[in-house]
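> call design_seq(struct)
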């Protein structure tokens, strides 16, 4: 297989890049994604599907053809630097979503095809920076979230066993088994049904207040706030990563700020820096100043009308 010469690939990349980097192109792609979501939602109405089955199928094929053309343009935009295309996670995601629609198994399975079309909606994050940052934050918070889930599972299990021991015979509907106790406590984590649970516990013993109070404090306040802290920390890291990536491309706020700061520094230096006089000019000025001082001293010591030459010399110095 022969590859195109470098100048040819550069021209192809420049032409495709001019199309893909245009604001109108992003707007058209976003419109196609939203149209795909509307078509997917319209297919949930059986009567509408029965009346417009052919039109819906044609619109889906048109969307697929447009997304395929979009991927070809994006691939062409990286013809002169293909490695950069594969380093971008969003490019890989878009390519997989579009390419899977051509697989035989996916095309024949309507359920998988609909799920695949649903995944296309996630591509809107490519065109909304804040949504993209949110997705990055969620992915970076997964390790902390796993630790949170492990600690929450341990607390849930311990309190479920205590609840089964203490309330199993008195309230079998909620604590009759470990599974029911886990389900009850999981719902109590959202404070749903807490009042009824407390009243049922008070009918048995006042010490149940200690059980429910400590559980609500740990599960609903401490753990939830820890999870919020993990997500917020990941969100800050995602913002920094996105800003750094934008700055590396030369279009981020930091890069622009740096350029403006550098420009302002240069302008300020140009305005405030004094002119550097040449040594010869400086020596001539000093000599002229000394002559003018001598003339002034002589005129003060011996009052007389200055000569014409002195007047000319002083005018020249002034």
């Amino acid at each position: 297989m022969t590859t195109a010469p470098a100048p040819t690939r550069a021209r192809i990349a420049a032409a495709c890049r001019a199309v893909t980097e245009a604001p109108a192109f992003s707007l058209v792609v976003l419109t196609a994604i939203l149209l795909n979501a509307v078509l997917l939602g319209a297919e949930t109405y059986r009567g509408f599907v029965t009346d417009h089955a052919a039109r819906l199928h044609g619109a889906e094929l048109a969307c697929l053809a447009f997304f395929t053309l979009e991927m070809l343009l994006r691939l062409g935009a990286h013809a002169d630097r293909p490695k950069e295309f594969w380093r971008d996670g969003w490019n890989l995601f878009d390519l997989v979503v579009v390419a899977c629609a051509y697989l035989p198994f996916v095309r024949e399975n309507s359920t998988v095809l609909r799920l695949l079309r649903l995944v296309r909606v996630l591509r809107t994050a490519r065109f909304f920076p804040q949504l993209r940052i949110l997705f990055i934050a969620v992915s970076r918070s997964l390790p902390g979230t796993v630790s949170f889930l492990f600690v929450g599972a341990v607390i849930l299990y311990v309190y479920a066993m205590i609840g089964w021991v203490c309330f199993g015979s008195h309230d079998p509907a909620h604590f009759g088994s470990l599974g029911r106790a886990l389900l009850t406590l999981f719902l109590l984590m959202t404070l749903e049904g807490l009042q009824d649970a407390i009243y049922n516990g008070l009918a048995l013993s006042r010490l149940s207040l200690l059980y429910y109070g400590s559980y609500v404090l740990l599960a609903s306040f401490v753990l939830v706030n820890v999870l919020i802290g993990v997500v917020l920390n990941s969100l800050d890291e995602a913002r920094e990563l996105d800003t750094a990536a934008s700055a590396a491309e030369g279009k981020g706020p930091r890069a622009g700020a740096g350029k403006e700061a550098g420009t302002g520094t240069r302008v300020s230096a140009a305005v405030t820096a004094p002119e550097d006089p040449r040594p010869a000019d400086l020596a001539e000025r000093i000599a002229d100043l000394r002559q003018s001082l001598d003339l002034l001293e002589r005129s003060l010591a011996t009052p007389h009308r200055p000569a014409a030459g002195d007047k000319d010399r002083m005018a020249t110095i002034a």
